[in-house]
Predict the structure.
Amino acid sequence: ERQRDAVRSAGLQAGLHVERVLTEPTAAALSYGERSVLDGKKIMVVDLGGGTFDVSILEVHGDVYQVLATGGDAFLGGVDFDACIVEMLVKAFLQAYDVDVRNDPVALNKLFSLAEKAKRALSEHSHTMVELDHLVVEGRAALELSVPLHRSEVERAFRPLIEQCLKLCFETCGKAGMRPVQVQEILLVGGQ
């Protein structure tokens, strides 16, 4: 609620009349191209972004989007999925060099960048190779390592996060007083 108040305050300071503050999923549903597809339906908008996971269940009647329930986790997002891949890379580095990359913020930041690229590559391919070139850890000479990643092993690492997302979707259905099978459309939003 503090975040909503901050948004209202910022709008007022900008000279705007703030009618209502919408959640990102609700705003996504409003901007969805084919509104006629949603008319008369109960929809779930799932927004898995970089740092947050939001779920909204809406009932759509013409231009009226009634929010039945919202849910999610402000501390669950793409960065958590990246962290799973980083952990795989850290283990490979420990095995190859007996060096814990987590102790070096610069090296760890580079691993997070490579993990995000690997995650994107695995969206289109069943495997990818992560090339750790010239990684300086704790002042040591530049280290190199090639780590093969397979979509199936990454999906296994993601399983607890995916289960948490599903749990939050089910809970939001419960808040709306409905079962998941009553959701007629699902709108996926966010970088994930």
Summary: The chain has a mean pLDDT of 90. Helices lie at 2-13, 24-31, 35-38, 78-97, 105-124, 151-175. The chain has six helices and six strands. The radius of gyration is 21 Å.
